[in-house]
């Protein structure tokens, strides 16, 4: 029977656009003034250059205008402006290039690196880093005037660096070679006064440290101390929780630089940060923050009304006394005027967004902790044949097996810390559907509506995280047989609690992956499976095989095979086995993907491997003649479709399926000759 593989999450390719920005492909007329704006960036006036860069930045949020700018060499036009004499021009130019990288995609980022955007970008980052220190030595007035400019420029530049490094290995190589880590860590030290800049840095660091062994020697004791200081920061805002989570992800990426004596405590600190993030109820936070927003807006409206009335009164008083010294309009300050102290616009929404991003990040890193670090494991949906499955189960708990590692791949002490931090319990809580009240708030508030997608993403990541934990954890660590049976009921309820089966591809992939891992764990330990009726099982599989996602199709076929092999050991199950057999045969013969067809054959081998009920059902559905007829078709498909469409590992698995098909046919023929 095919065993699922743990999926290793890759980071999201692009950082989100800046405040109030979007990449929605919508915008103005087709004939955008690209040429006019690019001409103005060469203007002698800094104000004109700033205006042009701001206009380009806005237009580049609209995907359909990006080709027009690329044709006019926008990268080489804006690149030199990163070192413009005007700080305002630097900031708007960096923002425009950031939007280009975020909205343009991988090919645009590659093109930016090819056109040498890294040279001015690296120079800007280093100069801004030096500028941070210089501003602290300047007189107070100068420091206040320049500090925000420098940090804002740095924030745009760091986000641009993050984007191109996510997409281009040459950019990462330049990051390593030019010693950018020192400058980037210098920005991270500003976390106590500029958390937004620190979050951008932490995102960038997590990206450049992933699968980058050449960078590891740069993480000396001083660099690690900076990361440790951030992880220990006591602030409790959601943005700081996100910052700590991202920094913990970077520390996990560089774990090979940590002395063995400190590794256990370091990973325990990472898990505590993840536990802190996952412990927060996002739905309740949405409800609470929405009320806070309403209160803030109400107070702001009242304060504005009060100030307007005061201005009217002041105007009347001034008109009655011509000798009174004129007070500049808007400068009257009252003791109870709190408008200057109110939080910035939409801070509540930003806090919730930061929380959901932190939770999603934590879950993705936990998944990676449970996975082999072999890059070939990106083909996470690959299949294992019956023979390979036994080897898989024997090796899945052994360190260094190259397949899967024990939880956190470390010592028993650290593994126990994984459980002591209640990580599995908190992950399970995140697999539930979001609170209906929170969803209603998001649905009826346009600016909050994007949170629905983030809530769903957290749920799906939690299910994938559960899938990975099930693959690498011992049954006793998971709470024993009763806990697994309760978990099976919970997952079944997620599928069948609503009138219609879920259709979202990401959710289907996540829930079927978790179900597959759970059922194969229960089957391997002979734990009773009663979470779905045969009718529900076939209903789920029928929906799954029509999914456009091959991983979903693989999962449901495997689930059917696992359940069928368990039923084959029971009594009076021949009718159900007939339905399962017919279903799997149809998938094997009609499925467009050889990988899914191979999994269906593998499932058939398991369901009809043994047992009187299975033998009876096999005869009634004419399994043997159907497989003998299909065997040459499968061989021909492998010859025609195999090379070029599938990875080497997938072809090895399919070759094993082909061999097992021949063996299974021979086995069925033997059964037919055996006297009953």
From TrEMBL:
<dbReference type="InterPro" id="IPR016024">
    <property type="entry name" value="ARM-type_fold"/>
</dbReference>
<protein>
    <submittedName>
        <fullName>HEAT3 protein</fullName>
    </submittedName>
</protein>
<dbReference type="InterPro" id="IPR052616">
    <property type="entry name" value="SYO1-like"/>
</dbReference>
<dbReference type="GO" id="GO:0006606">
    <property type="term" value="P:protein import into nucleus"/>
</dbReference>
<dbReference type="Pfam" id="PF25567">
    <property type="entry name" value="TPR_SYO1"/>
</dbReference>
<dbReference type="InterPro" id="IPR057990">
    <property type="entry name" value="TPR_SYO1"/>
</dbReference>
<dbReference type="InterPro" id="IPR011989">
    <property type="entry name" value="ARM-like"/>
</dbReference>
<feature type="compositionally biased region" description="Basic residues">
    <location>
        <begin position="1"/>
        <end position="11"/>
    </location>
</feature>
<feature type="region of interest" description="Disordered">
    <location>
        <begin position="1"/>
        <end position="32"/>
    </location>
</feature>
<dbReference type="InterPro" id="IPR000225">
    <property type="entry name" value="Armadillo"/>
</dbReference>
<feature type="domain" description="SYO1-like TPR repeats">
    <location>
        <begin position="413"/>
        <end position="670"/>
    </location>
</feature>
<dbReference type="GO" id="GO:0051082">
    <property type="term" value="F:unfolded protein binding"/>
</dbReference>
<dbReference type="GO" id="GO:0042273">
    <property type="term" value="P:ribosomal large subunit biogenesis"/>
</dbReference>
<comment type="similarity">
    <text>Belongs to the nuclear import and ribosome assembly adapter family.</text>
</comment>
